[in-house]
Write a structure and sequence with these properties.
- The chain is of the alpha+beta class.
- 39% of the residues lie in helices and 21% in strands.
- An eight-stranded mixed sheet has the order 6-5-9-3-2-12-15-14, with no helix packed on it. The chain has a five-stranded mixed sheet with strand order 17-18-19-21-20, covered by helices on one side. The chain has a five-stranded mixed sheet with strand order 29-31-26-25-33, with no helix packed on it.
- A hairpin with a 2-residue loop joins strand 5 and strand 6.
- Helix 1 crosses helix 2, helix 2 crosses helix 3 and helix 15 crosses helix 16.
- The relative contact order is 0.06.
- The structure holds ligand BES and zinc ion.
- Ligand BES binds next to strand 20 and helix 2.
Length: 867
């Protein structure tokens, strides 16, 4: 079905709703093909004058409508599948609607749909309107009472938000349950799940002594695999009490795992819905990265209960108010659960891999966009990752104390409201006494600031002058930028690694750590009493989401790698040397980097997770982004050559690490995961040696005692040109064919394999009987792994990679527009490439644009990418 014409929604046009709905009672008569939804809303006009009430709908079929018990005359309203307008309703009334929907026919996975014979919902952002006509906007908060009726044999468990108040049997083998959520909420937080589940249960005693019953509902047979998610949930609840003084506010907290889900997870009040991939884990079927992601996402969705649910967004432009803040909270949680520096480096890697490219291309937009066509397209790395960084900078600029007080002020003052970014920032202006108006530029301007710094040291006077400048390149719709305040966490070391204290001009004492803020386009910071030529590190812990050109020499970076007290700076120094070698053909420095990484191996036992990160060179996507005229083939070759130099230099030690027996019994702890990460990094480096090292990989595969080890070995085999890859794949498939999450890994490792035949393999996999275009996990395992983790094949000079992705998106679009639109984001880099590649990318995108039936979601992404 063709969507309505593309309309642009603008932040500047925001109007408060003319009506409120304070209470809604819903009755669901569940049936896969024809579900009846009766909605009784208490509606209240907010203004004086009589005004029409316009309710949102999507693919709805209205069965009946009445006001205060009287069936409405046909002339009193107009209705179509997308809108219900009541022309002149009273000021206060009871609206009763019955709509009919078909969950089984819903392939978009938005609204009420079926997944493995179970009912489930996804309402964020605008899915509730696919259930009943409603004021489907986040600033309309209502109390929900939900009665669910269904066949008891097929759907024994009936869940919704809030507390279960009543349940019982009905005639004809049906039964019912009534759920009441006492907390007013926006419609996007509504949820309903019904079906046959296995569940695990636990409880959590809150600080004030209330008992919360916890439940996780999964496919029958999967219960034990949900234990780590349950453990993560309890740790998250405790952490939010300890860190932010936030307690949970219902007697019940449930999570349901769903096999067919467009996103990672969803924070519905009291009833989170999760992609199964982010709930189910055990040693044999999940990697350490999976365990880590489960902890992070369970935390994230739980933390939304305060940042998102109790305090929600006034409108969807404020999405970062809940998402950026919750990403920040989630990152802090993970840092406290594991290693803070390792967490920080991983977060920076993710930001660079996903957000910097977005900010540098045609889809660039501010953390708070000012217009959109489909809000689904704005759940982006910028809103999430950069949105999280903005909160981190706020904390750095106002200081820890004022940040903590500002958060408490926000929780107290804004509780129960639909708020804006301004409401949030006002709390920190108040707690710190600072004027934060310049800080708002971080929310308003797109683009990654490029920071440049140059130092000058005068031996005679002991004066060190550091000139720092910033610039943001134009982005779509924003030609001119004004400088945002950039926190610089700065310190100095000497060549031999000694820390150097310095007295900032105007300061009374020397310090070894300087917390500066660059507020102008250019500033020269002057330091006195500097006893030796300093090597500056400007972005301790990556204090701002910027790129940095600090002009340091390789020798200076080697000194940082060896000695800087900040782990992020040590890691970054190695990455910077590697980038320089690969991008400017500074091959002569490769042996020096190899020696420096040898030292990381020497001290790897102290912090194996850190060493593992140090051993991984910047990936091809990062090089493509950093290169003015990227040639993926050349960059790949440069990267492989450097990897080979390093691997050859340390071959014996790497093989010993890679061949070490797995630890039993398995533990998902950060320490054990760190040791496995080092093993995986060793395998990955050895893969650069090609088929000659394949024996090591086959052995590692055969001896693996965990999925982490098996997957790393398989990945290394996929990089080497050994036939052993296909043997291992066959073995893997036979062993795991009944486990969809593991088979997703089987698809992904092949799609990401940088072999010459990558595209042929991916094409074959698309025809594989286990490929399923309706299952988002499977689609992403194939297509996103290919387009994002296999850049050389995706950006093939003949355009074959581009065509593959566009064809697949075209096939998915009629079924699931949100998924199709998201699949196309790897096209965001197309303008960076040579003429020939650009032509191919453009024609692939134009082929989509020409489709008259293309969804609104996909059309917006295609048009903005082409513009
Ligand atoms: N509120 C989102 C879920 C969501 C995403 C709804 C996109 C509608 C559109 C949820 O809190 C979320 O952010 N989920 C992330 C995972 C998270 C840990 C970053 C997701 O689903 O990717
Ligand atoms: Zn979220």
């Amino acid at each position: 079905m063709r969507d309505a014409e593309n309309v642009t929604v603008r932040l500047a046009d925001y109007q408060p709703p003319t009506y409120s709905i304070d209470d809604i009672a819903l009755v669901f008569s569940l049936d896969a093909d024809a579900t009846l939804v009766a909605a009784r809303s208490q509606v209240r006009r907010r203004g004086e004058a009589v005004a029409p009430l316009a309710l949102d709908g999507k693919r709805l079929d209205l069965q009946s409508i009445s006001i205060d018990g009287v069936v409405l005359d046909g002339s009193a309203y107009s209705v179509d599948p997308e809108k219900l307008i009541i022309h002149a309703p009273p000021a206060n009334f009871r609206l009763e609607l019955v709509t009919r929907i078909s969950p089984a026919a819903n392939t978009a996975l938005e609204g009420l749909y079926m997944s493995s014979n179970r009912f489930c919902t996804q309402c964020e952002a605008e899915g509730f309107r696919a259930i009943t006509y409603f004021l489907d906007r986040p600033d309309v908060l209502a109390r929900y009472a939900v009665r669910i009726e269904a066949d008891k044999a097929n759907y024994p468990t009936l869940l919704s938000n809030g507390n279960l108040t009543e349940s019982g049997d009905m005639e004809g083998g049906r039964h019912y349950a009534i759920w009441v959520d006492p907390h007013p909420k926006p419609s996007y937080l509504f949820a309903l799940c019904a079906g046959k589940y296995e569940s695990i249960h636990d409880q959590f005693a809150t600080k004030s002594g209330r008992n919360v019953a916890l439940g996780i509902y999964v496919d029958p047979g999967d219960g034990e695999r949900a234990r780590y998610a349950m453990d993560s949930l309890k740790r998250a609840m405790k952490w939010d009490e300890d860190t932010f003084k936030r307690e949970y506010d219902l007697d019940l907290f449930n999570i349901v795992a769903v096999r067919d889900f467009n996103f990672g997870a969803m924070e519905n009040k009291g009833l989170n819905v999760f992609n199964s991939s982010l709930i189910l884990a055990d040693a044999e079927t999940a990697t350490d990265a999976d365990f880590e992601a489960i902890e992070a996402v369970v935390g994230h969705e739980y933390f939304h209960n305060w940042t998102g649910n109790r305090i929600t967004c006034r409108d969807w432009f404020q999405l970062c108010l809940k998402e950026g803040l919750t990403v920040f909270r989630e990152q802090e949680f993970c840092a406290d659960q594991r290693s803070r520096p390792v967490q920080r480096i991983k977060d920076v890697k993710r930001l660079r891999a996903r957000q910097f490219g977005e900010d540098a291309g045609p889809l660039a937009h501010p953390v708070r966009p000012s217009s959109y066509q489909k809000i689904d397209n704005f759940y982006t790395a910028t809103v999430y990752e950069k949105g999280g960084e903005v909160i981190r900078m706020l904390k750095r600029i106002v200081g820890e104390d004022a940040f903590a007080r500002g958060m408490q002020l926000y929780f107290e003052r804004r509780d129960g409201t639909a708020s804006t970014v301004e409401d949030f920032i006002a709390c920190f202006a108040e707690s710190s006494g600072q004027d934060l108006s310049q800080f708002m530029r971080w929310y308003e301007q797109a683009g990654t600031p490029a920071v440049k710094s140059r130092g000058r040291y005068d031996e005679k006077t002991g004066l060190y002058e550091l000139t720092v400048s910033q610039h943001i390149a134009p982005t779509p719709g924003q030609a001119k930028k004004t400088p945002p305040p950039i926190p610089l966490w700065l310190s100095f070391i000497a060549k031999d690694g000694a820390r150097i204290a310095a007295k900032l001009e105007g300061d009374t004492i020397s310090r070894i750590e300087h917390h500066l803020v660059l507020v102008n386009e250019e500033t020269t910071f002057r330091f006195n009493d500097v006893l030796e030529a300093p090597i500056p590190a400007l972005l301790h812990s990556f204090s701002a989401p910027v790129t940095l050109d600090d002009g340091l020499s390789i020798e200076e970076r080697l000194a940082q790698m060896a000695h800087d007290p900040d782990p992020f700076t040590r890691w970054e120094a190695g990455q910077a040397i590697a980038r320089e070698i690969m991008l400017s053909d500074a091959k002569a420095h490769a042996p020096a980097l190899a020696i420096a990484l040898g030292r990381e191996l020497d001290r790897a036992q102290e912090d194996p997770a850190f060493a593992a990160l140090a051993l991984r060179l910047p990936d091809l996507n990062e090089l493509i982004l950093a290169s003015p005229s990227p040639d993926p083939e050349k960059l790949h070759a440069a990267r492989e050559s450097l990897r080979k130099t390093i691997a050859a230099a340390h071959r014996v030690r790497l093989e010993a690490i890679a061949g070490a027996p797995g630890e039993l019994p398995f533990s998902p702890s950060a320490d054990a995961a760190g040791r496995r990460a080092l093993k995986s990094a060793a395998l990955d480096l050895l893969a650069s040696l090609g088929a000659e090292a394949a024996g090591v990989f086959s052995d590692a595969y055969q001896n693996a005692t965990s999925m982490t080890e098996a997957a790393a070995a398989l990945d290394a085999l996929g990089q080497s040109n050994s036939e052993a890859f296909d043997d291992a794949l066959e073995q893997f498939y036979q062993r795991w064919r009944e486990n969809p999450l593991v088979i997703d890994k089987w698809f992904a490792v092949q799609a990401a394999s940088p072999r010459r035949d990558a595209l042929a393999r991916v094409r074959r996999l698309r025809e594989h009987p286990d490929f399923n275009i309706r299952n988002p996990n499977r689609v992403r395992a194939l297509a996103a792994s290919f387009a994002m983790r296999n850049p050389r094949a995706f950006h093939a000079a003949d355009g074959s990679g581009y065509r593959f992705l566009a064809d697949l998106a075209q096939a998915i679009d009629p079924l699931n527009p949100a998924l199709a639109a998201r699949l196309l984001t790897p096209f965001e880099s197309w303008k960076r490439f040579d003429e020939q590649r650009q032509q191919h990318a453009k024609s692939a995108l134009e082929q989509l644009k020409a489709l008259p039936e293309l969804s609104k979601n996909t059309r917006e992404v295609v048009e903005r990418t082409l513009a």
